[in-house]
Design a protein that fits this description.
heterotrimer, A mainly alpha (43), B mainly alpha (299), C mainly alpha (225)
C-alpha cells in the first residue's frame, strides 16, 4: 500500500511538469501576440 | 491546419486518458514489484520521447551548421548515407550481430540505423533554411521537459523498489542526467546570447553534446565494472501485455509531444516576427511602411 | 601547414610575453589556487584513513576551478582592442588562433597544477601506492581535455551576457566523462587498487574526438555573425 503512494506521486509529478510548461507556452503566446498588436498599431 | 489543432488536442487528451486507464487498471500486476512498477508506463515513454526529440535537435543542428556551405552540405549528405548503408550491413556481420542483446532482431537494429539518414533527409526537406533552427530549439525545449520527467519519475520508482533514490553507477540514469545537463546548458546559451550568432553557436554546442553522450556511456560502463553497483533494472523480456500497454502509452505521449512541439514551433515563429517588427521600427522610424519579409508558414 | 604553425607560434609567444610582462593575472591565479587547496584541506579531513580515496576527486575539482578562472580571461584581452575582429578579417587560418590559445592555456593551467599538486601531497601526506608514472599521462591528457573545450566554450561565451558564468555552465556537462576518467584514474593510481589504463585510453579518445570537433567548428564560432 505504501508503495502505491509513489505511483500516484509519479503520475501527478508528470502532469504537474507538463502543466507548468504548457502554462509558460500560453503566457509567452499572449505576450507575443500583444506585442505584435501594439507594434502594428504604432505604425 | 490551424483549425485542426483544437480537435487534435481533444483527441490526444482522450488517447492519453485511455492509455493512463490501461496503465493503471488493465495491465497485469507485476509479480515482484506489485503495482508500483506501473510508473514505467510514464517513465519509459517519456525517456524514449526525450531521446527522439534530442536526436531531432542533433540532426537539425548538423544541417543548420552546413546551411551556408554547399561543399560541406554534399559531404554531410554522403556521410549520412554511408552511416546508414554501413550501419545496416554491419548489423548483419557476425561479430556485431553477437553483440545485439537477446530478444532483439538484427532487422530491428538495422531499421533503427536507417532512421538516421531517413530523419536527415526528411527534416531537411520539411524544414528548409531558418526553419531548421526553429525546429532545433523546439525539439530541445520540449525534450528537456520530457527528460525532466524521466529524472523525476526515475528516483520515485527506484526508492520503493530498490530502496535508494539514486545509484551513481547506473549507466542509464547517469547518461540521462548528463544529457539533461547538456541540453539545459544549450537552452541557457540560446537565452543569453544575442540573436545574430546564437543559432550557429547553439548548433555547435548540440554537436558537442551528441559527441559527448557515447563517451559518457563508455566512461560509466567501465567505472561500473570496477566498482560493484547494486543490480538495477534488469534486462530480460517483458510480459506481452505489459509491452503492449507500454507501446500504447508511448504512442499517446508521442501524439502529445507532437502537439506541444507544434505549439512551440509556432510560438518561435511568432516571436521572430515580433523581433523583426521591433527591428523594422527602430531602423525605419515612423514614416516606414511595414513590410514583413518573414511570413508565417501556412500549415 | 607551415603558415598554420608559424601563426600559432607567433600568437602563442605574444600571449606568453604579454602575460609575463603584467604578472597580475598570474599572481592572482596562483594565490587563488592556494586558497582552493586550503579550503579543501579544511573541508575534507586529511587525517582520515580513506583520504587517499577521495584526494583524486579533490585534486581534480581544485584544478577544474582554477582552470575555469584562467579560461575566463582567455579572450578578454582580444575583445578589448577589437583584436578579435582584426583576426576575423586577416587571412591567417582561424585554427592558428585557436591552437595558440589552447596551448597558452595548457601551459598556464599546467603551471598552476604543478604548484597545487605538491600542496595536496603535503597536506594529505600522500604516497602513491600504484604506478606513479601513470599520473603524468593522466595529468597531461586531463588538462588538455579541460583546456581544449574550455577555450572553445570561452570563445562561444565571449559575446553572451553573464560571460563568466556561461563558460562553466557550458563546460561542465560536456566534461563529465573526462572528469570521471581523470578522477577515477588518479584514484586508481593513488590507491593501487585497480588499473588506470582504461582511463588513460578514455581520456585519449576524449581528447582526440573533441580536439577534432573544436578545430572543425572554431571557424564557424569565430565568424558567427
Amino acid at each position: 500500500m505504501n508503495a502505491v503512494k509513489f505511483l500516484i506521486a509519479a503520475y501527478i509529478a508528470t502532469w504537474v511538469i507538463h502543466g507548468f510548461y504548457l502554462t509558460t507556452l500560453v503566457r509567452r503566446f499572449s505576450k507575443a501576440r500583444r506585442e505584435l498588436r501594439e507594434l502594428g498599431k504604432e505604425k | 491546419m490551424k483549425r485542426l489543432f483544437p480537435i487534435l488536442c481533444v483527441l490526444t487528451a482522450a488517447f492519453l486518458a485511455y492509455a493512463t486507464y490501461r496503465n493503471l487498471a488493465v495491465a497485469p500486476t507485476d509479480a515482484l514489484q506489485g503495482d508500483v512498477y506501473r510508473i514505467i508506463y510514464y517513465h519509459v515513454p517519456s525517456a524514449w520521447t526525450a531521446f527522439l526529440l534530442f536526436f531531432i535537435n542533433f540532426i537539425a543542428s548538423i544541417q543548420y551548421l552546413v546551411i551556408g556551405k554547399p561543399s560541406a552540405r554534399s559531404v554531410m549528405k554522403w556521410i549520412v548515407i554511408a552511416v546508414g548503408v554501413l550501419g545496416v550491413i554491419a548489423t548483419y556481420l557476425p561479430p556485431i550481430k553477437a553483440q545485439i542483446p537477446a530478444g532483439m532482431e538484427p532487422s530491428a537494429v538495422a531499421t533503427t540505423v536507417l532512421m538516421i539518414p531517413a530523419f536527415y533527409f526528411v527534416i531537411g526537406w520539411l524544414f528548409p533554411g531558418q526553419k531548421l533552427d526553429v525546429l532545433a530549439v523546439t525539439a530541445a525545449e520540449v525534450g528537456v521537459v520530457f527528460c525532466t520527467i524521466v529524472l523525476v519519475t526515475g528516483p520515485i520508482w527506484a526508492r520503493p523498489v530498490w530502496g535508494i533514490w539514486w545509484a551513481t553507477g547506473d549507466i542509464r540514469l547517469t547518461s540521462t542526467l548528463v544529457l539533461w545537463l547538456i541540453y539545459v546548458s544549450y537552452l541557457v546559451l540560446r537565452k543569453f546570447s544575442n540573436s545574430a550568432q546564437t543559432q550557429m553557436l547553439a548548433a555547435a554546442l548540440a554537436v558537442f553534446g551528441a559527441l559527448d553522450v557515447p563517451l559518457v556511456y563508455l566512461s560509466i560502463w567501465f567505472f561500473r565494472t570496477q566498482h560493484p553497483q547494486p543490480v538495477i533494472g534488469g534486462g530480460g523480456s517483458m510480459d506481452p501485455h505489459m509491452l503492449q500497454t507500454l507501446l500504447l502509452s508511448w504512442m499517446a505521449f508521442l501524439c502529445f509531444a507532437f502537439l506541444v512541439c507544434w505549439s512551440r514551433f509556432h510560438l518561435e515563429l511568432l516571436q521572430r516576427e515580433v523581433e523583426q517588427a521591433h527591428a523594422m521600427e527602430s531602423l525605419a522610424g515612423a514614416s516606414a511602411s511595414p513590410s514583413m519579409p518573414l511570413s508565417r508558414s501556412t500549415r | 601547414m607551415t603558415s598554420l604553425w608559424s601563426v600559432t607560434l607567433a600568437t602563442l609567444v605574444k600571449d606568453i610575453r604579454l602575460e609575463w610582462r603584467s604578472k597580475d593575472a598570474l599572481n592572482s591565479m596562483l594565490f587563488f589556487s592556494l586558497l582552493v587547496v586550503v579550503i579543501f584541506v579544511f573541508s575534507f579531513d586529511p587525517l582520515a584513513e580513506e583520504s587517499r580515496h577521495i584526494v583524486g576527486g579533490l585534486v581534480w575539482v581544485a584544478f577544474l576551478f582554477a582552470a575555469v578562472v584562467a579560461l575566463n580571461q582567455t579572450w578578454a584581452r582580444e575583445l578589448r582592442n577589437q583584436v578579435l575582429d582584426a583576426y576575423r578579417v586577416s587571412p591567417s587560418p582561424a585554427n592558428a588562433l585557436f591552437l595558440a590559445k589552447v596551448l597558452g592555456n595548457f601551459i598556464f593551467v599546467s603551471v598552476l597544477e604543478a604548484l597545487m599538486a605538491p600542496l595536496f601531497v603535503i597536506f594529505y601526506n600522500l604516497h602513491v601506492l600504484g604506478p606513479a608514472w601513470q599520473l603524468i599521462p593522466i595529468g597531461l591528457l586531463g588538462t588538455w581535455a579541460l583546456v581544449v573545450n574550455g577555450t572553445f566554450f570561452a570563445a562561444m561565451s565571449v559575446r553572451t551576457r553573464s560571460r563568466e558564468i556561461m563558460l562553466p555552465l557550458l563546460l561542465f556537462p560536456i566534461s563529465i566523462p573526462a572528469v570521471l576518467g581523470m578522477v577515477a584514474g588518479t584514484t586508481a593510481i593513488l590507491t593501487g587498487e585497480n588499473s588506470a589504463r582504461f582511463y588513460i585510453v578514455l581520456l585519449l579518445t576524449y581528447d582526440v574526438v573533441f580536439t577534432t570537433a573544436c578545430l572543425a567548428l572554431f571557424e564557424t564560432v569565430l565568424h558567427a555573425e
